[in-house]
Structures are given as structure tokens and as C-alpha cells.
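Good morning,

Attaching, inline, the C-alpha cells for the sequence recovery test we're adding to the shared suite. The designed sequence is right after.
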């Protein structure tokens, strides 16, 4: 048990971006997906209640730059492929959609990257 507690303590120190990278590395190493594990675990809850449908398309909305406009603009450019002027306008015009209709994994990845740069993001 002590080893597990140490592991939890160490994992708690990871940034959001590092945690996302760890999840991806573990998925690749073990040949599994975190989404698949959730889907398998869901039916075990008790078959009587109808399962809530999980949303499979998300819009990633930039809600603010968190005072780190330059870093967020750089990340927006990397994510969207926009030019400097367009990315700056998007960040300054927040809340604005960064990506629309993307899967959950991509939405979480974009959110982690923007948050690591200092921005704020909302998934809808």
C-alpha cells in the first residue's frame, strides 16, 4: 500500500500536459484506451437505469488568455495553423471557438495545451 501512496503522491505533482502525455504513453505501451476502459466499466453499474449517452463531439472554446497572451497565441497558432494576426485576433476576441466537432481525446489534448500555456478553455 505504501508504494501505491507514493505513486499517487508523485502523479499528483504532474502538470496537466504531463498527465496527458503519461496517459498517451500508457495507452500506447499497454495497447488500450482510457475511453475503452470507461465504456467497459459503465455497464457493470446495474442494468436497470438507462445509460446516459456520452457526448462524442466537442467544441473547444478559448475563454481567456490568463494574462499570458503571447504564450497562448503561440499555442493557438500551433493548434489551429492560423497566422499570427488571426491567432492574435482569436485570443483577443475570447471567448472564441478553437476547434469544433472534435472527439473527446482531441478536445482534452487541446484543452491541456492551452491551459499549460496559461489560457482558459471550456469544452461544450
Amino acid at each position: 500500500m505504501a508504494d501505491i501512496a507514493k505513486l499517487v503522491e508523485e502523479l499528483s505533482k504532474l502538470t496537466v500536459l504531463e498527465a496527458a502525455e503519461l496517459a498517451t504513453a500508457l495507452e500506447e505501451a499497454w495497447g488500450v484506451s482510457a475511453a475503452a476502459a470507461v465504456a467497459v466499466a459503465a455497464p457493470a453499474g446495474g442494468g436497470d437505469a438507462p445509460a446516459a449517452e456520452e457526448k462524442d463531439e466537442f467544441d473547444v472554446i478559448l475563454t481567456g488568455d490568463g494574462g499570458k497572451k503571447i504564450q497562448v497565441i503561440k499555442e493557438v497558432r500551433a493548434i489551429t495553423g492560423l497566422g499570427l494576426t488571426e491567432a492574435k485576433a482569436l485570443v483577443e476576441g475570447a471567448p472564441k471557438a478553437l476547434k469544433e466537432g472534435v472527439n473527446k481525446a482531441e478536445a482534452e489534448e487541446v484543452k491541456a495545451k492551452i491551459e499549460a500555456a496559461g489560457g482558459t478553455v471550456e469544452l461544450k
